[in-house]
Amino acid sequence: MRKSATLICIPIMGETIEKMKIDVQKAKQNGADLVEIRLDHLTTFNPSPDLHTLIQDRLLPVLITYRPTWEGGKYDGDENKRLDALRLAMELGADYIDVELKVAHEFYDSIRGKTFEKTKVIVSSHNYQLTPSVEDLGNLAARIQATGADIVKIATTAVEITDVARMFQIMVHSQVPFIGLVMGDRGLISRVLCAKFGGYLTFGTLESGVVSAPGQPTLKDLLYLYNFRQLGPMTKVYGIIGKPVSHSKSPMLFNEVFKSVGLDAVYVYLLVDDLANFLRTYSSTDFAGFSVTIPHKEAALKCCDEVDPVAKSIGAVNCVIRRPTDGKLIGYNTDYVGSISAIEDGLRGKHNVSGASSPLAGKLFVVIGAGGAGKALAYGAKEKGARVVIANRTYDRARELADAIGGDAIALADLDNFHPEDGMILANTTSIGMQPKVDETPVSKHALKFYSLVFDAVYTPKMTRLLKEAEEAGATIVTGLEMFIGQAYGQYENYTGLPAPKELIRKTLEN
């Protein structure tokens, strides 16, 4: 059953009427609610016959937009002809037309005394530089409303993800139908969470990359990744905080699991520059929990009101919960459990070892990287009785971590020549080898023969160059996906207070 009242609109930007008709059909087949016909994208446009075709034969409700270059569109011809086309669209019974605020009064003057019962007028304003203050946004919304608009539309640009909160504030208090979107990658949540905060519509594209404004998700992602139809005012928001963040598989995993277990929650990508500012801005208990990835895991420790003792020892937090009773932030680290248990399983599988003691006990365990994930693995390996060596590009950071856990340090450049014994364990916790730089590796192939097991925290791609070469050298390999699955169990339990549905999580990730 559909919960969200927010409509999904598909921008139709074909260069010919025929292409537009094909795309409208696709939009209908794929579950859109309406289409935005972008007349400014047509290479040739004959107002009377073309608008007849597009409006009379419509398969879905249509919004007619004829965007001029001065408002970010493609039309740079005669302004009177442009407004004539919009008036004709109203006469022909278009469901919506979009008029820019700059010309709205003039446009309304030209239709005074006429009635167009079928057409709602959207009056829009676009800011391609930034998102104004709440006060300025409120004043802008009032100016748009004063034109007589049926629907207010404001599109701004996100310089930081916190800018979106101002748009939500205006949206949730709007007394008239309101479209509020914040463009760019940092504004993505405005396009998803508008269904929670009462937005009139959002835009989704037919295919990725073909967007009418920066940061638009695809229709498929809105419907099947974010379960957009099920979002509403009571939906809890979770997400992955990082920079970069678009490579993460967490939204695919958690949204699927939330849907399967019937939880009213959504999990989104959060491209965050300043973590403390983000957590301060989105302080409502509706923003219930976050996964934290590179480069914010150490900063997250400082931002929490309470930190789990293990996370405190590691010095990094990868999971933050907002306690519903008092809104306090609680930090955890589920990385080390996920990765260490995956490595132990790999060793047990190879040597058929079982029993209470860890197969890591007494082993030489080399950790590449001294960031949050490196700290988690170093701490976890030490706890299990391994002798730990930290290899890092900056030797001083490696030394600092080694001193903290009682291990040794070397510079990453020296790792190729470091082989005091055979059967060592190697764990890469850096982003070396991650998409798009898939041909990079932190250690040369000839050095891998001294390791009995190699683990790589990178999971995009699943088989990194490091793992391929380690396998060729005869080592057991453990992929980052195994760590990801392990830490996801812990995060789910922290988020919900319920046991993790392990089979469901594993199956979802393997798919």
Describe this structure as you would to a colleague.
With 511 residues, the protein is of the alpha/beta class. The chain folds into 3 domains: 7-216, Alpha-Beta Barrel (TIM Barrel); 255-333 and 486-510, Leucine Dehydrogenase, chain A, domain 1 (Rossmann fold); 336-478, 3-Layer(aba) Sandwich (Rossmann fold), CATH 3.40.50. It contains 18 helices and 20 strands. The chain has an 8-stranded parallel sheet with strand order 7-6-5-4-3-2-1-8. Strands 10-9-11-13-14-12 form a 6-stranded mixed sheet, sandwiched between helices. A 6-stranded parallel sheet has the order 17-16-15-18-19-20, sandwiched between helices. It is elongated. 48% of the residues are buried.
